[in-house]
Write a structure and sequence with these properties.
The complex is a heterodimer. In chain A, 31% of the residues lie in helices and 20% in strands. Chain A starts with a helix and ends with a strand. In chain A, the strands form six sheets. In chain A, strands 13, 14, 15, 16, 17, 18, 19, 20 and 21 form a nine-stranded mixed beta sheet that branches. Chain A is an alpha+beta fold. Chain A is globular. By secondary structure, chain B is mainly α. Chain B has two domains: 60 residues, no CATH class; 246 residues, MetI-like (MetI-like fold), CATH 1.10.3720. In chain B, a hairpin with a 4-residue loop joins strand 3 and strand 4. The longest helix of chain B is centred in the middle third of the chain and has 38 residues. The radius of gyration of chain B is 25 Å and the shape is globular. Classes of the chains: A alpha+beta, B mainly alpha. At the A-B interface, helix 1, helix 5, helix 9, helix 10 and helix 17 of A face helix 2, helix 3, strand 4, helix 5 and helix 7 of B.
Chain lengths: 677, 354
C-alpha cells in the first residue's frame, strides 16, 4: 500500500471520527457541590469548607434533550395554507396552530365550544342565535392583531367567509358552508348561473356568465355574511336552520384571514367586480397557498414542500394570563418555542428517528405498533390523564391508547350495480344467478344483506385488522357522538344465521346454486384486504358454493368504478369533516355512499326525511331522537355492514407534557403542550 | 467529432418529443375519472367533486389538445395571449410536489447532485481499484475476498442494507442521521446571512466558512454514500476485474513484460487504460443513475432528492411531474451518453466518431 493510499485512508478515518464526535452529545460532568461543615477543635468551632463530589446523577430520561423544540415526524405534506381551500388534515394541522377561528373546541370535548376570536359562543339564550335558527351573530374580540401587526376586525371575518364561498374550489371544504348559508346542495356558488353549467370551470364561467349574474352571486354572498365594524359584530344569515353550524365554523375553514394582507398578496380584494378571477383556483393558482398570516400562538418560519415545516412561537400572542383558553388551559406566549414537522415516508426511518430520541412523536402504522410497544414505559388514559407503568417502567416512551378515531371502514352493498358504456360489468361474473356470478340486483334482497352482516366476524376484524384497537358501531353515527344510541341493535357474527338468511334469499335457490361476487378494496390497504378475507372465509365455511373473489383495485380505478356504482361490494371508509352526526348520516344514507350503492328511491326518501329533520333541529334532545330513529331504520333495512371505529394510539417521548386528545381536531394543538426541562 | 456532437444534440428534442408523446398515449388507458384521483385522495365528499375536477383541469379534453396545451400553453381569456407551456419554460404544477414542476426539479436536483458527486468518487475510485487489485491477484486470497464482497454487495437489497445501516449507525448511536441537515444547521442555512452559492450544502458551508455545517451535512450524507457505494462497487469490481484479466492476457502485455518493464508500469501504463474502456460505459450510466435520483436510498435516508419526489409523483399519476422529470432525464441521459462516447474516442484511438 503506498503512502498516498495510507494518507487517504487516514484522512477518511479522521473525517468519520470528526463527524461522529460532532454527533456526540456533551458529556454531563459530575456536579461539584461545596458544603460547609463544622468541626469542633478543642472547645472552639472552626468552619472548614470541603468539596464533596457526589455520585454522578443518573441521566433523567424524562428531561427533553431540546427543551424548546418539539419535533414530530409524520408522512403527508400539506396541500395549501389557505384556510378557505385547505381540506386535508395535514394542511389543517398547520393552519390550526397559526390561525384562529371564532370558536373552538373546549379542550377534550368535541361537542362543546369555547370562544376564541369571538367573545362568546352564540346561543339562543344569549341572543347570538335567533329563535328561528337562521341568524347567528358573533361579537369579535378587540385588541387582537395578526402576525404582521394588522388589527383583526369583523370585516376580516366577513371577508374570510365571503372569499371562501366565492372561491368554491371543487377540492375545497366550502360545500360545508354553502349548504347552510346559501342553501346550495351542489357544492358550488355558481349553482344559479346557467343551472350550474360552469361549476368548477373558471374560464367557462368568465366567458359565459354575464356581469349581472356574477354580481348577483357576490351580492348574495355579501348579504349572507355581513360585518359591522362599529358594533364589532359578524352576522350570518342562513338559508335554513342548521344544527351543525357551530361545529362547521370551529374548523380551520373558518379561520380569520387578514383582508388587507391577502389583497396585497394578490388574493381577492373584496370587490364584486373581481371575484370570478379567483373562482375555483386550485392550490396551484391560489395566492395564499404558500403564505400564512394568522392571529394564533405560532408563526410559520419555513415550509419546504415534501420535507416539512417549522413554526416559531408568537411571543406577542394576545391571550392574557387571566384568560385561559379553557379552564386550566394555556395562557400567554407558547411554552414550546419551536415546532418542527418532518416528513418521512418510510416507517423504518421514522422508527430509527424515534429510537435515537430525535423526535418527540412519530406516526406509527397499525401493523408496526407491537414493534414500538417494547419501548413503552407507561400507558396513559386520555380521558383521565392517569398513567400506569408498563412492565419496563424505564423505557423511554409513553403510550396513549384507545383514542377514538373519526373514521370508519365499512362494507357497502350495491342494490343494483351499474354497467360500463358497453352494458357490461366485470365485477359480477356472469351477471346471472348460476353460481358463476350474481344478478345486478343481487343485494336488493334483504336476506342477502342480512347474511353478509351475520357472516362477518367483527371480533376477528378488530383483533386482526385493527390490532385489537377498535370498537364496534351500531349505525352510521360513531361512538360518543350526539345521536349514537348505545342501546341500538347490531348484527352479531353468527354463521348459522348467515346460512339461514342465505337460504331465505332469492326464493331459496342460493344453497344449491351458490354465487360468485367480487369484493373490491383499494390496493395497498391491508386493513380492507383483511376485511375481504374474513368475509370470504366465512362464506366458504357456510357453503363452498358461496364464492367471494377479492379484488384489489388501484385507487383511481376504485374511485371510478365505485362512483359509477359498478362495484357490487366495496370496502371503503369515511373520515368526518365536522364532528356532527349530520356528517355521518348524510353520506351513509342519502349522499355519497347511498349513490354508490344505488339505494332505491323510496328507501332514500325515508332516510332523507330524517336527515333533513335532524340537521334542521336546533335542540340537541330533538336531534338525538331523530338520529335514534334514523339509526333504527338503518339497522332494519341493513343497507351496509357497519364495522368498527378504529381507536388510535399515540407514542410520545416521556418528556412531552400536557398532551390532550380531542377527536374533532385535525392535529396536535402545540400551544397547550410543554416539554420537561 | 464536432459533427457527431451536433448530431447528438439535434437528437435530443426528437427523443424528448417521442417520450412525451408516448406518455400521453399511455395515459389514454386511464379515464378522466381515474386521472382525477390525483386530486381526490379520499372518497369524494361532494357528489359533483369528480366532474368538477375533470372540468377544472381539462382531463376530458382530447389528448392532442391536452398535449398542445402542455407543450405550447393555453390562451388567456382576458388578454388573448398564450400563457404557460413547456416551450415557455413552464412545466406545469406538480400536484404531489406542491409547487411548479420546474421549481421542484431545480430545488431537488442540488441534493441529488451533491449525493452523486460525493458518491461518484468512492464508487468509481474504490470499485475500479478493487477490480484491478482482484485481477492482478487473480485467484489469490484478495481476489477471492473481493469476489465474495462483490457477490454479497450485488445480492444485498438496497433497502435491507440501508435500514441495517440506519439502525446500527443512527438509531443505536445517533451518529449519522437521515435527512440532509440537522434542524439547527437548517436554520442557519435558511437564514439570509448564509449565502447558498451552489445549493450543495457541503460546498456552501465551506464557502461560508461554516465547518460545523460542513460536518453536519457530511454526517447526513455519509450513510447514503456508503449504501450507494457498496452496492455499486460490486458491479464495477466485477467489470473492471474481468476487463483487466482480459487485458492482462493480451500479447502487448506479454511484449511489455518481455521488454523488462516493471510490474507496476505494465499494469498502470498498458493494461489499465485498455481495461477501463468498458468501465467508462458503466461509469457513465452509474453517474446518470445517480443524477436521476436513487429512489430507495433517498427514501430510506429521507434524502430530499429527485428520485424520491418522482417516485411519489409516479405512483400518484402526477402526469405533469413525471413529464417534467422525463424531459430532464432524457436530456441528462443523452448528454451523458454523448460524454461517454467522446470519452470512448479519447480512451481508444481506434474508435472514431463520425
Amino acid at each position: 500500500m503506498t503512502r498516498r493510499y495510507r494518507s487517504f485512508i487516514l484522512l477518511a478515518v479522521l473525517l468519520i471520527l470528526a463527524m461522529a464526535l460532532a454527533a456526540c452529545p456533551a458529556v454531563q460532568q459530575p456536579q461539584v457541590i461545596e458544603v460547609e461543615v463544622t468541626r469542633i477543635v478543642e472547645g472552639q468551632s472552626q468552619v472548614v469548607v470541603v468539596t464533596a463530589t457526589p455520585e454522578p446523577v443518573a441521566e433523567i430520561s424524562t428531561a427533553a434533550p431540546r427543551p424548546d423544540t418539539y419535533t414530530d415526524v409524520v408522512f403527508g405534506d400539506i396541500d395549501t395554507m389557505d384556510p378557505n381551500l385547505a381540506y386535508d388534515t395535514a394542511s389543517g394541522g398547520l393552519i390550526m396552530n397559526v390561525m384562529e377561528t371564532l370558536i373552538w373546541f373546549d379542550h377534550k370535548n368535541a361537542t362543546n365550544f369555547v370562544p376564541i376570536l369571538a367573545t362568546e359562543v352564540p346561543s339562543v339564550e344569549n341572543g347570538g342565535i335567533s329563535e328561528d335558527g337562521l341568524t347567528y351573530t358573533f361579537s369579535i374580540r378587540q385588541g387582537v392583531t395578526f402576525h404582521n401587526g394588522n388589527d383583526l376586525t369583523p370585516s376580516d371575518f366577513a371577508y374570510t367567509f365571503q372569499r371562501g364561498l366565492l372561491q368554491s374550489d371543487p377540492n375545497g371544504p366550502q360545500w360545508l358552508l354553502l349548504e347552510p348559508i346559501l342553501g346550495y346542495t351542489s357544492g358550488d356558488v355558481t349553482e344559479e348561473i346557467g343551472e350550474g353549467a360552469y361549476a368548477g370551470d373558471p374560464e367557462a364561467l368568465k366567458t359565459n356568465a354575464t356581469p349581472e349574474e356574477l354580481a348577483a352571486v357576490c351580492e348574495k354572498v355579501q348579504a349572507a355574511v355581513a360585518a359591522d365594524d362599529a358594533a364589532g359584530t359578524l352576522t350570518f344569515n342562513l338559508a335554513q336552520p342548521w344544527g351543525p353550524f357551530l361545529a362547521t365554523l370551529a374548523q380551520t375553514w373558518g379561520a380569520a384571514i387578514d383582508q388587507q394582507w391577502a389583497a396585497e398578496n394578490g388574493a381577492w380584494d373584496g370587490s364584486c367586480d373581481t371575484w370570478a378571477d379567483h373562482y375555483a383556483p386550485g392550490a396551484e393558482n391560489d395566492e395564499l397557498s404558500s403564505i400564512i398570516n394568522g392571529t394564533g400562538p405560532y408563526m410559520l418560519e419555513s415550509w419546504t414542500p415534501g420535507e416539512g415545516w417549522v413554526l416559531v412561537a408568537n411571543e406577542n400572542y394576545w391571550r392574557a394570563a387571566d384568560d385561559p383558553m379553557w379552564e386550566g388551559g394555556p395562557t400567554g406566549a407558547p411554552a414550546i418555542k419551536r415546532v418542527v414537522r418532518k416528513l418521512v415516508n418510510e416507517w423504518g426511518t421514522r422508527f430509527a428517528i424515534l429510537q435515537a430520541g430525535d423526535a418527540e412523536v412519530v406516526s406509527v402504522p397499525v401493523a408496526n405498533r407491537p414493534q414500538v410497544d417494547e419501548f413503552v414505559g407507561e400507558f396513559c388514559d386520555w380521558r383521565t390523564d392517569e398513567c400506569t407503568p408498563s412492565d419496563t417502567p424505564d423505557a423511554p416512551l409513553r403510550k396513549w391508547g384507545n383514542l377514538p378515531s373519526t373514521s370508519r371502514t365499512d362494507i357497502f352493498l350495491n342494490f343494483n350495480v351499474g354497467t360500463d358504456e358497453s352494458g357490461n360489468n366485470s365485477y359480477i361474473g356472469s351477471g346471472q344467478l348460476d353460481g358463476n356470478g350474481v344478478p345486478a340486483d343481487f343485494f336488493s334482497d334483504i336476506h342477502v344483506r342480512k347474511a353478509f352482516n351475520y357472516c362477518f366476524d367483527y371480533d376477528a376484524y378488530i383483533s386482526d385488522a385493527l390490532n385489537g384497537e377498535g370498537v364496534r358501531n351500531n349505525g352510521p353515527i360513531i361512538l360518543d357522538m350526539l345521536g349514537y344510541n348505545p342501546d341500538g341493535e347490531m348484527y352479531e357474527f353468527d354463521l348459522d344465521k348467515c346460512a339461514e338468511e342465505m337460504a331465505l334469499a332469492w326464493d331459496g335457490q342460493l344453497p344449491d346454486i351458490g354465487f360468485r361476487v367480487q369484493v373490491a378494496f383499494n390496493t395497498g390497504n391491508v386493513t380492507r384486504q383483511t376485511v375481504a378475507a374474513i368475509l370470504q372465509n366465512n362464506f366458504l365455511a357456510v357453503n363452498s358454493k358461496y364464492q367471494i373473489d377479492i379484488i384489489g383495485l388501484p385507487w383511481p380505478t376504485l374511485l371510478r368504478s365505485f362512483r359509477a356504482a359498478q362495484l357490487p361490494v366495496a370496502i371503503s371508509g369515511w373520515i368526518e369533516d365536522i364532528h356532527d352526526p349530520h356528517n355521518w348520516v348524510q353520506p351513509f344514507t342519502v349522499g355519497t355512499f347511498a349513490g354508490r350503492q344505488n339505494l332505491p328511491a323510496d328507501l332514500k326518501a325515508q332516510f332523507q326525511a330524517l336527515v333533513n329533520a335532524g340537521v334542521a333541529a336546533a335542540d340537541p334532545a330533538e336531534r338525538e331522537a331523530i338520529y335514534f330513529e334514523l339509526q333504527k331504520l338503518h339497522h332494519d333495512t341493513v343497507i351496509q355492514v357497519t364495522m368498527a371505529q378504529a381507536t388510535g394510539v399515540r407514542y410520545e417521548q416521556r418528556w412531552v407534557q400536557n398532551y390532550f386528545y380531542n377527536p374533532a381536531l385535525f392535529d396536535n394543538y402545540f400551544y397547550a403542550f410543554g416539554l420537561a426541562q | 467529432m464536432t459533427a457527431y456532437i451536433i448530431r447528438r444534440i439535434i437528437q435530443l428534442p426528437i427523443t424528448v418529443f417521442g417520450v412525451t408523446v408516448l406518455i400521453f398515449l399511455m395515459l389514454q388507458v386511464l379515464s378522466p375519472a381515474e386521472r382525477a384521483a390525483l386530486y381526490i385522495k379520499d372518497i369524494p365528499k361532494n357528489e359533483n367533486q369528480i366532474d368538477r375536477v375533470i372540468k377544472r383541469y381539462g382531463l376530458d379534453k382530447p389528448i392532442h389538445i391536452q398535449y398542445i396545451n402542455w407543450m405550447f400553453g393555453t390562451t388567456d381569456q382576458e388578454t388573448g395571449q398564450r400563457v404557460g407551456g413547456v416551450l415557455r419554460g413552464d412545466l406545469g404544477y406538480s400536484r404531489t410536489g406542491r409547487e411548479p414542476v420546474i421549481d421542484l426539479l431545480l430545488r431537488r436536483f442540488p441534493a441529488t447532485l451533491e449525493l452523486a458527486i460525493w458518491s461518484f468518487v468512492p464508487i468509481l475510485g474504490i470499485g475500479i481499484w478493487l477490480g484491478i487489485l482482484a485481477a492482478v491477484n487473480h485467484n489469490k486470497w484478495f481476489d477471492q475476498l473481493a469476489r465474495l464482497f462483490s457477490i454479497v454487495g450485488y445480492s444485498f437489497p438496497t433497502f435491507v442494507f440501508g435500514l441495517l445501516a440506519l439502525m446500527l449507525l443512527y438509531a443505536k448511536t445517533g451518529w449519522f442521521p437521515p435527512g440532509r441537515l440537522s434542524d439547527w444547521a437548517n436554520q442557519i442555512v435558511l437564514a439570509p446571512a448564509f449565502v447558498q452559492y451552489t445549493h450543495l450544502n457541503t460546498v456552501d458551508a465551506l464557502l461560508n466558512g461554516r465547518f460545523d455545517i460542513f460536518l453536519d451535512a457530511l454526517r447526513h450524507i455519509f450513510l447514503p454514500i456508503i449504501t450507494l457505494s457498496y452496492l455499486s462497487w460490486a458491479l464495477l469490481l466485477r467489470i473492471t476485474r474481468s476487463s483487466m484479466l482480459e487485458s492482462l492476457r493480451q500479447d502487448y502485455i506479454v511484449t511489455a513484460r518481455s521488454k523488462g518493464l516493471s510490474r507496476r508500469d505494465v499494469i498502470n501504463k498498458h493494461a489499465r487504460p485498455n481495461a477501463l474502456i468498458p468501465v467508462a460505459t458503466v461509469g457513465g450510466l452509474t453517474v446518470v443513475g445517480l443524477l436521476n435520483g436513487v429512489v430507495i436510498t433517498e427514501t430510506i435516508f429521507n434524502y430530499p432528492g429527485l428520485g424520491s419526489a418522482v417516485a411519489v409523483a409516479a405512483v400518484s399519476l402526477d402526469v405533469l411531474t413525471v413529464l417534467g422529470f422525463v424531459l430532464f432525464n432524457a436530456s441528462l441521459l443523452i448528454g451523458a451518453n454523448l460524454v461517454v462516447d467522446v470519452l470512448y474516442a479519447l480512451l481508444d484511438p481506434r474508435v472514431r466518431l463520425g
